Amino acid sequence: MKRVILSLVTVVLAGCVTTNVVPTGKDTYLATVRNCGFCTASATATEAAAKYCAERGQVSTVTNIQTVFGSGAADVQFTCSSPAAQKPARMDNGTSTLEVQSAH
Questions:
Q1: Closest by alpha carbon to 48, among 35, 63, 36, 30?
Q2: In 10 A of CB 60, how many CB atoms?
Q3: Distances from the Cα of 91 to the Cαs of 16, 61, 70, 95, 96, in angstroms?
Q4: End-to-end alpha-carbon separation of the chain, Å?
Q5: Is 45 exposed, middle or buried (0-12, 13-18, 19+ CB in 10 A)?
Q6: So what's the pLDDT on residue 90?
Q7: Residue 64 and residue 4: Cα distance in Å, rounded?
Q8: What's the confidence (pLDDT) of residue 86?
Q9: Residue 8: which H helix or E strand, with range?
Q10: Which of 39, 38, 49, 37 has the alpha carbon at shortest distance from 75?
């Protein structure tokens, strides 16, 4: 009985994810993940985007993520570009600091 349950769990975890990458415009693509089950669909689609661009000697930039909570599905829109074309990350990680001074 334990072997049957282990086999069933292995099949559920292993072979159900479908991932596709399709072009949607100039250097723009859509990675779709369906039937993700116990995985995180948006992370799986983002990894597919990175792999797709890396195979072409480029890096991916995610421009949009759409998921349906609990459905095991995600759509990740992304672009591929050369590493040199990437914008440098902000030193402040996108945060701003305001200093409030009291009036004297």
A1: 30
A2: 23
A3: 41, 18, 36, 9, 11
A4: 79
A5: buried
A6: 62
A7: 41
A8: 75
A9: helix 2-14
A10: 49
Listed residue (41, 30, 29) closest to 73, CA to CA: 41
Residue with the two structure tokens 């991916």: 60
Contact residues for 31 (Cβ-Cβ < 8 A; gap 6+): 19, 20, 21, 45, 46, 48, 49, 52, 75, 76, 78
Domain boundaries, the chain: 16-82
pTM given for the model: 0.66
- Which tokens is 5 given? 């349950």
Low-confidence ranges of the chain (pLDDT < 70): 1-16, 87-104
